[in-house]
């Protein structure tokens, strides 16, 4: 139950013995850790594009520093288009694609998801056919809501995502672009059990609470069986942040908006970065230590009654904000969380969302099993 840093694992806290473990943890480490953790150095290594799951979701474990994400409409034969995209991904990641001539693909990953309209055509009803509902603080042009296809391209070399995206879509006349967005992540800090997370534009570490082990990923990220087995639901939201307004808050006030300490990322309820937040902890005056509208309280999976989502968000410079990306086995993991945040989340007050979509991130593929073939058949 204890993790490498001597803390209590999140799974243990969320599991049946969790409350007892939480009590012990709080008695053991009541003071809030205030030391900023050092970044962990990671050497980019090639990531296999093939396997049970697509790359770019849980592999590499620490998301690459640069991302370009594009959303498209598809007017044509879905099976043929997806198979062609898969072939391009294989040649890009092996360094054979002419668009990368002279440039090493490094840790390039390309992840493809299909929108509700296409999933509905292939299998009337069921997982992947539901679009996202509308939420407060959205200002979304219809072209920036939904779409038939999402392509998430990530790499350590900032040159690689735009070239690789061009290599994937060039010549595929069935695709027309709706929108694209660039994002970046700084160095990650160690969280627990090999899991690490970067800071976002607010200066807070983002992506701490996450499914990490194979068991946690199987429980909360991968769809378990049927033709969609090994797929996942991808949610993307382009969230602009009023950083000037957030920065006008004192650091203490910023920390109450988030629910964690800014420098160390420890929960305001005590402990250190790898510890779960204690939503019950109260001050001697009887007030909740994690404020009632703090983001970590409103987004916490336990009161929302859902498993942990895998967040893989990137900071944006233009527009300034967060390209929120999450992967989960069920759309309700996102929607039930978002509903609770929409009721009262102090962080949401600093945001407006200008693009959004939910997609079925396809199961893994290889040269013998074309991308999308379990759902759309072979081209
Ligand atoms: C501008 C938008 C957002 C920013 C800047 C932001 C930032 C953060 C930060 C700093 C944390 C605390 C550290 C951590 O556990 O990662 C956090 C936690 C979390 N956020 Fe967000 N977030 C944003 C939007 C969202 C959205 C749209 C969702 C999903 C609907 C979400 C879901 C979560 C979850 C599930 C947690 C973990 C809560 C816990 O279990 O402790 N966030 N976020």
List the helices and strands and how they pair.
Elements: H1 10-14, H2 18-28, E1 66-74, H3 78-93, E2 109-114, H4 116-122, E3 149-155, H5 160-169, E4 175-184, E5 188-192, E6 195-198, H6 214-220, E7 232-241, H7 243-247, H8 251-258, H9 295-299, H10 301-304, E8 310-311, E9 314-316, E10 321-328, H11 331-343, E11 351-361, H12 373-376
The structure holds protoporphyrin IX containing FE (HEM).
List key phrases describing it.
disordered N terminus, alpha+beta, 11 strands, 20% strand, binds protoporphyrin IX containing FE, 379 residues, nine-stranded antiparallel β-sheet, two-stranded antiparallel sheet
Strand content: 15-25%
**Into which percent range does the helicity of residues fall?**
25-40%
Shape: globular
Q: Runs with pLDDT <50, length 5+?
A: 1-29
Q: Which molecules are bound in this entry?
A: protoporphyrin IX containing FE
Q: Main β-sheet, in a few words?
A: 9 strands, antiparallel
Count of discrete domains: 1
- Count of runs of 4 or more consecutive helical residues: 12
The tally of beta strands, per DSSP, is 11
Average pLDDT = 92
Give the helix/strand class: alpha+beta
Radius of gyration: 21 Å
Ends: how far apart? 48 Å
Order of helices and strands: HHEHEHEHEEEHEHHHHEEEHEH
Please give a structural write-up:
The chain has 379 residues and is α+β, with helices and mostly antiparallel strands. It has one domain. The chain is 25% helix and 20% strand. The chain has helices at residues 10-14, 18-28, 78-93, 116-122, 160-169, 214-220, 243-247, 251-258, 295-299, 301-304, 331-343, 373-376, and strands at residues 66-74, 109-114, 149-155, 175-184, 188-192, 195-198, 232-241, 310-311, 314-316, 321-328, 351-361. Strands 1, 2, 3, 4, 7, 8, 9, 10 and 11 form a 9-stranded antiparallel sheet that branches. Strands 5-6 form a two-stranded antiparallel sheet. Strand 5 (188-192) and strand 6 (195-198) form a beta hairpin. Helix 3 runs antiparallel to helix 5. Protoporphyrin IX containing FE binds at residues 200, 202, 204-209, 237, 239, 241, 258, 260, 277, 295-296, 299-301, 309, 322, 324, 334, 337-338, 341, 347, 351.
């Amino acid at each position: 139950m204890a993790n490498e840093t001597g803390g209590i694992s999140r799974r243990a806290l969320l599991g049946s013995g969790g409350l007892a473990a939480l009590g012990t943890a709080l008695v053991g480490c009541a003071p809030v850790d205030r030391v900023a953790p050092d970044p962990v150095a990671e050497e980019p290594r090639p990531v296999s594009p093939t396997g049970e799951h697509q790359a770019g979701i849980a592999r590499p474990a620490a998301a690459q520093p640069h991302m370009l994400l594009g959303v498209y409409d598809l007017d044509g034969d879905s099976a043929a288009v997806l198979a062609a995209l898969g072939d391009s991904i294989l040649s890009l990641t092996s360094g054979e694609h002419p668009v990368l001539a002279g440039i090493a693909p490094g840790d390039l990953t390309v992840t493809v998801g299909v929108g509700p309209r296409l999933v509905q055509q292939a299998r009337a009803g069921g997982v992947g056919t539901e679009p996202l509902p509308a939420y407060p603080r959205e200002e979304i042009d219809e072209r920036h809501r939904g779409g038939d296809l999402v392509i998430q391209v990530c790499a350590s070399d900032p040159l690689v995502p735009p070239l690789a995206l061009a290599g994937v879509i060039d010549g595929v006349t069935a695709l027309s672009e709706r929108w694209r967005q660039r994002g970046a992540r700084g160095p990650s800090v160690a969280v627990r059990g090999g899991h690490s997370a970067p800071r976002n534009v607010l200066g807070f570490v983002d992506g701490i609470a996450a499914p990490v082990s194979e068991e946690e990923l199987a429980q909360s990220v991968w769809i378990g069986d049927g033709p969609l087995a090994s797929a996942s639901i991808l949610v993307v939201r382009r969230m602009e942040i009023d950083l000037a307004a957030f920065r006008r808050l004192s650091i203490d006030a910023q920390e109450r908006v988030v629910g964690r300490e800014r420098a160390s990322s420890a929960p305001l309820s005590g402990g250190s970065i790898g510890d779960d937040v204690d939503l019950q902890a109260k001050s001697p005056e009887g007030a909740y230590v994690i404020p009632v509208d703090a983001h970590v309280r409103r987004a916490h999976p336990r009161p929302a009654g859902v498993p942990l989502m895998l967040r893989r968000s990137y900071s944006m410079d233009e527009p300034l904000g967060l390209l929120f990306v999450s992967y989960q086995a069920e759309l309700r993991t996102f929607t039930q969380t978002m509903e609770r945040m929409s009721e009262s989340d102090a962080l949401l007050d600093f945001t407006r969302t200008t693009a959004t979509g939910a997609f079925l991130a396809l199961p893994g593929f290889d040269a013998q099993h074309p991308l999308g073939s379990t759902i759309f058949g072979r081209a």
